[in-house]
Design brief:
The protein is α/β, with parallel strands linked by helices. It has three helices and nine strands. It has a single domain, classed as 60s Ribosomal Protein L30, Chain: A (2-Layer Sandwich), CATH 3.30.1330.40. Helix 2 runs parallel beside helix 3.
C-alpha cells in the first residue's frame, strides 16, 4: 500500500504544509537525504489549547502523545510538499523530539512515541528510526511538542 493509503486507512488526511515563520526553509534535499525542519503540533494552522503548555504542568502524557502525532503528520505534509510523492521515502532515518516540559518530567520517551508510532503506521518497517528526545524550557507558540525528521529518499 502507498503511504497515503496507510494514512487514509486510519482516517488521516495530510494538511497543507505550513510556511516557515522565520529565516529558514522547511525542507532540504541533499543527495538521497531529505531533512525536514522541526514541525509544531499545528492543527488547522494553529496550536490548539489541548496541545499548548508544559508536560508535567497541565499537559497530560496522552495530550503530549497526540501533539507528537500531529507533529509527525505535519512532517509528512512537508515531505509531500518537497517530494511530490510520499512513496519516494525509502525510510525514516531519524526523528528529533523536543518536549516542552517541567524540569522534573521524566516520561519524555512515552510522549515522543506519538510521533514514532505514526511513522511506523505510515511507512511500515521503513518507519522504524533512530531518535532523540529532549525536554526543553519553551517552544514557539507555547507548543507542547516539536519534531524534526531525516528521511532517506529515492532519487
Amino acid at each position: 500500500m502507498s503511504v497515503e493509503s496507510n494514512l487514509a486507512a486510519q482516517g488521516i488526511t495530510l494538511p497543507e504544509a505550513a510556511a516557515p515563520v522565520a529565516n529558514y526553509v522547511p525542507a532540504v534535499i541533499t543527495g538521497s537525504l531529505l531533512y525536514i525542519s522541526g514541525q509544531l503540533c499545528l492543527d488547522q494552522g494553529a496550536v490548539q489549547s489541548a496541545h499548548k503548555g508544559k508536560l508535567g504542568a497541565g499537559v497530560s502524557i496522552e495530550q503530549g502523545q497526540a501533539a507528537a502525532r500531529l507533529c509527525a503528520i505535519n512532517l509528512l505534509a512537508q515531505a509531500k510538499a518537497a517530494l511530490g510523492d510520499l512513496n519516494r521515502i525509502k525510510r525514516c532515518v531519524r526523528l528529533g523530539g523536543f518536549i516542552n516540559s517541567t524540569p522534573d518530567f521524566n516520561p519524555l520517551p512515552q510522549v515522543m512515541n506519538g510521533a514514532s508510532d505514526l511513522m511506523v503506521l505510515a511507512l511500515g518497517d521503513a518507519g522504524r528510526h533512530t531518535r532523540t528526545t529532549i525536554g526543553v524550557a519553551q517552544l514557539p507558540m507555547d507548543a507542547a511538542v516539536e519534531v524534526e525528521a531525516l528521511f532517506e529518499i529515492s532519487l
